[in-house]
Structures are given as C-alpha cells and as structure tokens.
Amino acid sequence: MLITFKCRAAPDVVMLENLAQYLVGIVGKHLGARGVITHEELPTAISKLEAAIVTDKREIAEHEGHFHEGEEGHERHELPIGLAQRAYPFLDMLREAQRENADVLWGV
C-alpha cells in the first residue's frame, strides 16, 4: 500500500507503507489511517530523523570494512541503500514545512 504525505509547503511525498511506518515511528508518531505532524512537532521530528540517519551512516561505514572489496577469493558485495537515501524526500518535506510553519498530513 502507498502512503502519501501532504504539506502546503512542499510537493507530495509517496512511499510504501512499510517505509512510511518506519520513518513516522522514528519521529515518534504512529502510522494510522490518518495522521499529522504539526508545525510545533517539526523541530523534534527533524532532529530524530537526522540522528537516525547519522547512526545508520555510521553502521554502514563500520560494515564497509567487512566487505573485503577487491580481495582475491571474495565476491564483490553491493552496499545496502541507507536510511539517508530512503528518508531524504520525507526529511526535505519536514524541513520545508518547518520553514513555512506548515503541518505534514497523511491519509487525507
């Protein structure tokens, strides 16, 4: 199922439900049929999401050393797509909403 986030300050952001549930959970909300991140909640939501991205990047960097890139006898491993890439459109929307004192809604 697709979830569409709406905000008057930014274009709509559409994502799969499992990613939406994960991102909304990071910012301290529950993905119900309808929901809102109010403009008062945006600074905290943005901070939580940015912190989760930093943690994810650190974990990926730690695992990069375990991939044995270029070593003989080891297959090349593809690095997983990180949270930063997946969360960027949502994080960008949150930042734009904060600049415009707008709420972010879903299920409307």
In a few lines, what is going on in this structure?
Pfam families: DUF1840 (PF08895). This protein has three helices and four strands; from the N terminus they run E-E-H-E-H-H-E.
Question: How is this fold's topology laid out?
Answer:
Elements: E1 2-7, E2 10-16, H1 17-26, E3 35-37, H2 42-64, H3 83-100, E4 104-106
Antiparallel strand pairs: 1-2, 1-4, 3-4
Protein name: DUF1840 domain-containing protein
- The counted number of beta strands is 4
Largest sheet: 4 strands, antiparallel
| Helical residue percent band | 40-55%
Mean residue pLDDT = 88
Q: Which sequence of strands runs across the widest sheet? A: 2-1-4-3
Structural class: alpha+beta
Number of separate helices: 3
* End-to-end distance: 15 Å
List the helices and strands in order. Answer: EEHEHHE
Unreliable stretches, pLDDT < 50, 5 or more residues? none
Radius of gyration: 17 Å
Give the amount of beta strand, in percent. Answer: 15-25%
Shape: globular
Pfam family, one: DUF1840
Protein name: DUF1840 domain-containing protein
If you had to describe this structure to a student in words, what would you say it looks like?
The protein has helices at residues 17-26, 42-64, 83-100, and strands spanning 2-7, 10-16, 35-37, 104-106. The two termini are 15 Å apart. The chain has 3 helices and 4 strands, in the order ββαβααβ. The chain has a domain at 32-66 and 80-108. The model has no long low-confidence stretch (mean pLDDT 88). A hairpin with a 2-residue loop joins strand 1 (2-7) and strand 2. Helix content is 47%, strand content 18%. It is globular and about 55 Å long. The longest helix is centred in the middle third of the chain and has 23 residues, at 42-64. A 4-stranded antiparallel β-sheet has the order 2-1-4-3. The protein has 108 residues and is α+β, with helices and mostly antiparallel strands. It holds the Pfam family DUF1840. It comes from Trinickia dinghuensis. This is DUF1840 domain-containing protein. InterPro entries: DUF1840 (IPR014991).
